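re: ur question from yesterday

yeah so i grabbed the chain u mentioned. its 113 aa long if i counted rite. heres the sequnce exactly as i have it in my notes:
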Amino acid sequence: MAEAAPAPAAAPPKAPKKKSAARPKKAGPSVGELIVKAVSQSKERSGVSLAALKKALAAGGYDVDKNNSRVKIAVKSLVTKGTLVQTKGTGASGSFKLNKKQAEARRGNVGGS
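ran it thru and got these structure tokens back, copy pasting raw so excuse formatting
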């Protein structure tokens, strides 16, 4: 005779977790937009190094020390999207400049008519 094991006592239903108040998004341009702006203002032929890019962002009031990883991720994503071209180095390090081909394609689409 196999006796059925007694069912474990059902745990009392937990109260639904209250979500913490959502932080409002900060107004202003994203890190990627700031990076593109800084690279476009540069007159360097070989592009802007990551260190120079961070200095330009810091001069513009962006807290680079606090958001260092965000800067690196944004640079990598801009390279993969094709907005920036990496002229030296690998990953987030090295030098970067704007992709002329993509800039021309964007200008062509802006007209609209």
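noticed a couple things. Helices lie at 31-41, 50-59, 68-81, 100-110. also DSSP finds four helices and three strands in the chain.
anyway ttyl
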